[in-house]
Amino acid sequence: MRHLAVLAAALRRLRQRPVRTFLLLQGTIWGVAVAIFPSAVIQGTREAARTQGSALGADRVSMRADTTSDASVRLVRDDLQTVRATVAEVGTPLVGLGGLRVARTVPSEEPDAEPLTVLETVAGTAPARGHTLAAGRWLAPDDGPGRCVVEAGVAAWLGRTALAPGDTIEVPGWPRPLEVGGVCAPRPAEALRTNDLGIDLEHPLYKKVGMPLLFAMGIMPVPDDWKRSESCVHVLGDGTDELHWIFLRVEPARVSAVANLTRDRMADEGKSVVMLYPLVLPLIMGEKVERFDAVNLAMFLACLLMGAVVMMNLGLLSALTRAREIAIRRTEGATRRDIALQVLAEGLVLSLVGAGFGCLLGMGLAHLRASLEPVAGFTWSFPLREGLTAVAVAVVIGLLASLLPALRAASQDPVQG
Predict the structure, then answer these.
(1) Taking CA 310 as the corner, what is the angle to CA 304 and CA 313, rounded to the nearest 5 degrees?
(2) Using CA atoms in the order 211, 261, 248, 246, what is the torsion angle rounded to 10 degrees?
């Protein structure tokens, strides 16, 4: 009961001095917010890349010939072996590899509807692009030219309610009917809005800021709307060696290394290629981002130490100005220990309240930062370990900062007060 009375007195004192209490809270609030904000964004984005990386393309590299460099440059099937050897040289598992050629595009009779695109692919290309099957199987190397895998929107484009393995379809202008061997599962809406650079093309900031910035960097848009369409038919290449695109999938943290080394190996063979891959997610998944932990820790401690200095100085000043209050409490029976505990209780309450508001501020900043980022998959989550550590350190520093004012207040002579 006695300790509860001391805590109640501390709360009453803090409530009676709102301006002073607000000033004392600042260091703790901003210190905890600085500790939580970057960790929340990094942890949330990493988790999104791990769980949704395939759908968002965080693990995918797309390669095409750079026709602006040399018009005679073209990709062929043998280049797949070069890519395979390059990935092995990096020392990371190859999740998927394939290539394709855009063989035919059939416009829709419906206005504003997506065209139907026929893709002549190497076996295994659809999984390398991140597709998954809803029914049937993928194309195998021994399948003939009359078998196909259709995406989720092909049935509606052809005016059918659904397609299943074994069905036969006819593509306008295609030389032969096609037997459906597999049907792809619908992709998430976010994946259909995301380009090879990992950018949400419908994000307002991309249209206002991101697109002009990419233009300024010399990154021009690529005519690849079929990638964000569900109206593609995959068939095996009919003896054609040329490929328009090569796709490979590796773990997100090694995407940048694989892309850069592959570009160098292709250059050694006299081919200038354009490598497209998400710019932000592989960076956050990589080890380089760990270097920011030291900066983040320094800023966290600096904010808390500045808050501790303010708390200690104001506490010492308060101990001198509260001489009459302390003297009255002493005459009412409070011991030196009670006086010291009250000051320490004030510091504890300030630290806990400041840490709580700091957590809220840090999460608010993380939410604001994620909402302004046009990169798909850029999000946040509460970093439990970092949050508990920040609160614990804030409480310890707050108690240490209150220790000297507590001893000063307890040592005052009630007669002089």
Answers:
(1) 135
(2) 70
